[in-house]
Each structure stands twice: as structure tokens, then as C-alpha cells.
Automatic annotation (TrEMBL):
One of its GO terms (molecular function) is ATP binding. Signal peptide: none annotated. Keywords: Hydrolase, Protease. This is Lon protease. InterPro entries: AAA+_ATPase, ATPase_AAA_core, Lon_lid, Lon_Prtase, P-loop_NTPase. The keyword Transferase does not apply. The lineage of its organism: Bacteria, Candidatus Woeseibacteriota. It comes from Candidatus Woesebacteria bacterium GW2011_GWB1_38_5b.
Length: 353
């Protein structure tokens, strides 16, 4: 046997081992074994093998799809409440809606019902109101893996659905990729910015979303690359949107809309003091308590350029203050053991331009 034939035989053996060591659904196991049998037959008959790389890539993908593994869900509502309060200030009505939603899921799980048949939560609000971070916290409260699919600007339904293997550059869609990355069949998957898909692809993408979100259809989601029905009924989907104008009626029917309120100035001051400033200061490498901000200065920090319904501007302003302090520290213009106090007299030197 020449070197090329030996390498080919070794590659086929690796593929067979990979299939045997993975718990695949019987139909998919039979399909992949048939692919390898065809290659072996072609080699015995002296023919060439031109699609081995394509088959190897396909087997690599399907053997990573978590058809069986799952995460044990947290069934303690008190832990869920603590996690939400730890990561988010205010939003009382939103937290109550989420806890009610979790209560229903918990009761169904305790009854042995693993499939998620409740409407999908969709957090709707302006930029910076905490939609994405709240989704991450929801995954944390349930003890599940978290994955995010950004839909903003998506212009090709194949990014979700995958592309048929008849094309040379075929690959699975984002749904399958996120399942593989999570490694379990029951992660929390965030469908972010549902309303911002491109106009050209909106109808097709909304059609796929209906299949994803409908409990009667998502038990057999068909990715065109995998070409085998995948059960998504245990995935907990969450959606976000700035508004519902561009979301199709059929998709809206499958969503439970939760409006994210704008933050008041008083809430922003608490969020800035207790949540953002400690985190950003640490991330900038600043020594603990090197900056002290007078209470009279916070109104200038939360509104440097006018009103903002969310906290993005506040976050950027605090980042600017911390970075300017970090520069002064590195340049030796302030000492590590000296507290820098920001007052109404010097705050303008630290606010971003």
C-alpha cells in the first residue's frame, strides 16, 4: 500500500472511530456510515475519492451536536431573585414578570415536562436599558449555558438555517453552531435585535424564527447543512428588540412582550455609584478607592450631554473618567496612595470631550 493510500485509510479509520464514539440518533448514524461505506467501495474499485474532506467536515459537525447532553436547571426561585437583584437595580415590574415566567417553567420541569411550551420572552426597549444583560442574568438564574445570536443587520437566512452541502463553502447555521458551542441541548439562546434584520431578508428570517419559537415546530428544526431534524424544544429562547414595528405578526403571536422602562436620573445615580463605577474602575486597573466622587458631581456625570433613556452614555462617561485617571497614575502625576476627589471644580477635566 503506497503512502497516499495509507493516509487515506488512516483518515477513514479516524472518521469511523469518531462516529462510534459519539451517541448519534440511529438514522444519522446509518447515514454517516453509508457515506463511509461508499468511500471504501470507491477505493476498492480503484476509483478516486474527491469528497472526503466534505464528508470529514460533515461528520466533525454532527458528532459535536449535543443530541443528548443537558444542563441541570436551577429550580429555586429565591436564588433566581437574588441573581436578578445582584446584577440589576430597579426594574421591579420587569423582574416580577421574569420571576412569574420562571415559576411556570419550574412547575413544568418538576412535573417532568422538559419541553418549553410557554411563550418566548421578548424584552423591548431603547438602547442601553439592559435588555442583553438581563438576558444573561436570566441564564445565570437558571444555571444554563448562554449563547447570543445577533440578528441586527442579518441579510441572509442561510446564516440561521445553514447551507446545503452541495455548495463548496457550505456550513451549518448559527443555531447549530451555538448548540455546538454550548455543548448541551438546553441552553438559553438570545435572539438579539429581532427587529433589525435587513428588509430584503426579513420575510425569510421571520419564517425561520416562527419555526424556532413555535413549540409545535421546533422539535424538528431542519438545518440545511446537517439535513437532519434537530430537537430545539428544550432550548430557552429569549428575544430583544428596540420596538415591535418590524417584527411580523406571526412571530409576535409567539412572543411575550416585556417593556423595558427608561431609567430615571435617581436610578442612574444608584446604578453609576453601586454597579458601574466599581466594575469599570477595576477593569481599568485602578487601585481600589483611588477615586472619590462627590455626590454633587453625579448629576453632571449622568447627563454630560443631555437625557439618555439607557445607561450607555453613563457607562462611557465613567469609562472616560477612569481612563484619564489611569493615565495620570501611569504618568506619575498622581500617587497610588493619594485619593483623587472629583468635585464640581475639577470634574470638567475628567469628563470625555
Amino acid at each position: 500500500m503506497d503512502t497516499t493510500a495509507q493516509a487515506l485509510d488512516l483518515e477513514i479509520q479516524k472518521l469511523e472511530t469518531k462516529i462510534k464514539n459519539t451517541k448519534l440518533p440511529p438514522e444519522l448514524l446509518e447515514k454517516t456510515q453509508g457515506m463511509i461505506d461508499i468511500i471504501n467501495l470507491s477505493i476498492k474499485q480503484g476509483g478516486s475519492v474527491t469528497n472526503l474532506e466534505s464528508i470529514a467536515n460533515y461528520i466533525d459537525v454532527i458528532t459535536k451536536i449535543p443530541f443528548e447532553g443537558e444542563t441541570q436547571s436551577n429550580l429555586d426561585l429565591n436564588i433566581a431573585r437574588q441573581a436578578l437583584n445582584k446584577n440589576h437595580y430597579g426594574l421591579i415590574s420587569v423582574k416580577d414578570r421574569i420571576l412569574e415566567y420562571l415559576s411556570s417553567l419550574i412547575l413544568n420541569i418538576k412535573k417532568g415536562q422538559k419541553r418549553n411550551r410557554a411563550p418566548i420572552i421578548c424584552l423591548v426597549g431603547l438602547v442601553g436599558t439592559g435588555k442583553t444583560t438581563l438576558s444573561i442574568s436570566l441564564a445565570e438564574t437558571m444555571g444554563r449555558k448562554f449563547e447570543r445570536i445577533p440578528l441586527g443587520g442579518m441579510g441572509d437566512v442561510r446564516m440561521l438555517r445553514g447551507q446545503s452541502r452541495v455548495f463548496p463553502d457550505a456550513e451549518p447555521g448559527l443555531i447549530v453552531k451555538k448548540l455546538i458551542h454550548a455543548g448541551v441541548k438546553n441552553p438559553v439562546i438570545l435572539l438579539d435585535e429581532l427587529d433589525r434584520v435587513t428588509d430584503a431578508a426579513r420575510a425569510d428570517i421571520m419564517g425561520v424564527l416562527i419555526e424556532l419559537l413555535d413549540p409545535e415546530q421546533n422539535m424538528e428544526f431542519m438545518d440545511h447543512y446537517v439535513d437532519y431534524p434537530i430537537d430545539l424544544s428544550q432550548v430557552l429562547f429569549i428575544a430583544t428588540a428596540n420596538n415591535t414595528t418590524n417584527i411580523s405578526t406571526a412571530v409576535l403571536d409567539r412572543l411575550e412582550i416585556i417593556q423595558m422602562p427608561a431609567y430615571s436620573d435617581e436610578e442612574k445615580i444608584v446604578i453609576g455609584k453601586s454597579f458601574l463605577f466599581p466594575k469599570i474602575s477595576y477593569n481599568c486597573g485602578l487601585p481600589q478607592d483611588i477615586i472619590r466622587i462627590d455626590d454633587s458631581v453625579w448629576p453632571l456625570i449622568i447627563r454630560p450631554l443631555g437625557y439618555d433613556s439607557g445607561i450607555r452614555s453613563l457607562e462611557r462617561t465613567i469609562e472616560g473618567i477612569c481612563r484619564k485617571t489611569a493615565r495620570l497614575l501611569v504618568e506619575g502625576k498622581i500617587k497610588q496612595n493619594v485619593i483623587l476627589t472629583l468635585t464640581s471644580q475639577n470634574i470638567k477635566e475628567f469628563l470625555p470631550a
